[in-house]
Amino acid sequence: MMHVSADVREDTTRPRADKISVKDLDFYYGDFQALTGITVGIKERGVTAFIGPSGCGKSTFLRCFNRMNDLIPGTKVDGTILVDGEDIYAPGVDPVDLRRRVGMIFQQPNPFPMSIYDNVAFGPRLHGVTKKPELDEIVERSLERANLWKEVKEILPRGGLTLSGGQQQRLCIARVLAVEPDIMLMDEPCSAIDPTSVQKIEDLMDELKDRITIIIVTHNMQQAARVSDETAFFLQEKTGQPAEMVEFGRTAEIFTSPKDRRTEDYITGRFG
Amino acid sequence: MADEPMTTSTPSESKSTLKLMSKSMYAKEAALRNLFLLCATAAVAGVALIFLFVGVRGWPIIQDPGLGAFLFGKVWSSSTDQFGILPLVTGTLVITIGALLLGAPLAVGTAVFLSEIASPRVRSVVRPAVELLAGVPSVVYGFFGLIILRPIIANLTGGLGFGPLTAAIILAVMIVPTIATLTEDALGSVVPGIREASYAMGATTWQTIYKVLLPAASVGIIDAIILGMGRAVGETMAVVMVAGNAPQFFQGLGEPVSTLTSQIVIDMSYASGTHRTALFGMAVILFLISMGLVALVRVISNRKKEG
Ligand SMILES: Nc1ncnc2c1ncn2[C@@H]1O[C@H](COP(=O)(O)OP(=O)(O)OP(=O)(O)O)[C@@H](O)[C@H]1O
Ligand SMILES: [Mg+2]
Question: How far apart are CA B265 and CA B237, in angstroms?
C-alpha cells in the first residue's frame, strides 16, 4: 500500500492532462434548453468543484459524463464530451460500459436493500467476479478506501439500510470504488449527512484524487475551497434561459481573484 | 394542545375566533370520524354475520358424517349420501396451482414491462388493457374458455377438453390484473434512488430488474401472488363452465374435475339434508382458506417492517 501511494505521489508532479474535454455542449430537456455553449477541460487526478445557484444545471452537466440523462426521455445533447480522448456520445458507445468507468454518488445515500457486503460486491459481480476470496478482498479494500471498514467489518451481513446516513453514503462510495472507476461524480454528496461523515468523505477524496478524477457538485463554498483543485461556476441568468459556465479555473484563483463580476458576487454572497 | 402555541402568540381578539373555528372544526372532525367508524363497523359486522350464518348451518356436518369423513372422505355422491370433499379440495388445489404457475409469471412480467420497460405511450395503452381484464365478467371468461379454448385442449389431451388445464388457463388470465396491478405498485414504491444507483453502477435494465428491483419489491410481489391465489380459489362461474364438474379425483389435466365453489353452485339449488349441510361446511372451508391467505399476507408484510 505505502509503496503504491509513493509511486502515485510521484505521478502527481507530472503536468496533468485533460481527463474530460467538453466542447460546445448544449443540453435539452425536451424543448427546454438547460445548458448552452459549455467548453471546459477537466484535469485528471484531481478534484473539480461545480458551484452555482440552485437550478443552474450543475447536476444536469454532471450527469452528462456518465450519460445518466439518457434515462430521462426526451433529453438531447449537442456538442462533444471526450473521456480519455474518446467521444462518449458517439454512436456505438455503450452507456453501460461507460458507467462502469464513471462512478456516481448521489445526494441521498442510496444503498441497495441488501447486506453491506452485497452492496459493495454488486459491481464486481456485474463484471463477472464470482470467487468468494476475490470478492472478500475487493469488499474489504473498497470499504477501507471509503473510510468505513473499521465501522462495519463485524457486521458485513447486516442490511446496508441499517447504517446511519453518513455511513450509508460511505457505503455507496465503497460500492463505486469496488469497480475501480477512473472518474467519480459526486452530486452534493455531503448535504444530507452528519459532520463527522463529511470529514471522513473529504479525507477520502483527498486520498483518492491521486488516482481518480473527482467532480463534486456542492453548495458549500468552504467545502469547494477545501477539497477542490479547480472550480467551475455556473449561472442561469434568467429563468427559462439556458445556464452557462461563467468561469473556470484554479480554485485558489476563483476564490481569491475571480475574473468575472458574477462569480465574485456569488462567492462573496455565499461566504458572507 | 394544538391550540396552545397559537393562542400565546395571537392577540386576544382573534383568539376567540380561533377557538370558535377549532370548535366547529372539531365537531366536523368528530362527525366524520364517527361516520367512518360506522362504515368500518358495518363491514366487519357483515363479514361476521355471514361467517356466523354459514358456520351455524354447516356445523352439523361435524356430527354427521363427522369432521374426518367430511374433510378426508374420498367420495362425493349425493345418491349414496356420501359427502367427502377431498376430491373437491384436490380439484381446487390443482386448478389454483396451475393458474398460479401460468398466471403469476405472466402477471409479474407484465408489471415489470409496464413499470420498467414500456415507453409512456405504450404504457398508456397496455395498462388500461390489463385493468380491463379485471372488469370482464367471469361468465365471459367461461364462455371464451368453452368455445375457443376447450376444443384446443381437447385436441391436446384427448377427451372433451373439460378439466383442470382449461380451467387453470382461464383462471390464469383472470388473476393477471390482480397480480400485475399490485406488483406494479410494489415496483413503483421501491425507493427511486436505488434504481438510479443500479444504472449508475453500470447495470443493464435487465440486471437492474432482477438484481435490484425484484428483490426490493419481493414482499409486495408475494402479497400480490397470494391475493391472486385468493381470487383463483374463489372464482366460480368460469370454472363451472370449463372444469367438467365431475366430483372425482384428479386423473389428468384433461379429465373433468370439480372444485369447492363450483360444486356449491351446482348443488345448491336442489340439495337438502346432509347434502345441504355439507355445502355450508364447504363454504366454511372456503372462508377459512381466504382468511388464512389474508393472514399470510399480514405476516409477510409485518416481517418486512421488522427486518
Ligand atoms: N428531468 C428534468 N426534466 C425537465 N427539466 C429538468 C429536469 N431536471 C432538471 N431540469 C431543469 O434543468 C435545470 C437545471 O437543473 P439541475 O438539476 O441540473 O440544477 P442544479 O444546478 O443541479 O440545481 P440544484 O443545485 O438545486 O441541485 C433546472 O431549470 C431544472 O428545472
Ligand atoms: Mg443538483
Answer: 9
- pLDDT of res. B9: 43
Question: Is residue A99's pLDDT more than 80?
Answer: yes
* A158 φ/ψ angles, rounded to the nearest 5 degrees: -75, 155
Total number of domains constituting chain A: 1
Q: Report the nearest-CA residue for atom 26 of ligand 1.
A: A54
Instruction: Give the Å distance between the CA of A34 and the centre of ligand 1.
Output: 8
In a domain, A6, yes or no: no
Site from B191, B199, B201 to mutate, A interface, most A CB atoms within 10 angstroms: B201
What sign has the CA pseudo-torsion A69, A75, A81, A87? positive
User: How far is C-alpha A88 from the chain's CA centre?
Assistant: 17
Residues B183 and B228 in one domain: yes
Is A32 touching ligand 1 by the criterion CB < 6 Å?
Answer: yes
Q: What is the CATH number of the domain that holds B110?
A: 1.10.3720.10
Q: Domain for residue B48, yes or no?
A: yes
**Any ligand 1 atom below 6 A from CB of A200:** no
pTM: predicted TM-score of the whole model, two decimal places: 0.84
Name the pLDDT band for A152 (thresholds 50, 70, 90). very high
Q: Is the pLDDT at A2 greater than 70, yes or no?
A: no
* CATH assignment of the domain containing A157: 3.40.50.300
Residues B182 and B55 in one domain: no
Taking residues A24-33, what's their average pLDDT? Answer: 96
Q: At what angle do helices B273-306 and B260-267 cross, to 10 degrees?
A: 150
Asked if the structure places residue B116 within a domain, the reply is: yes
Question: Interface pTM (ipTM) of the complex?
Answer: 0.91
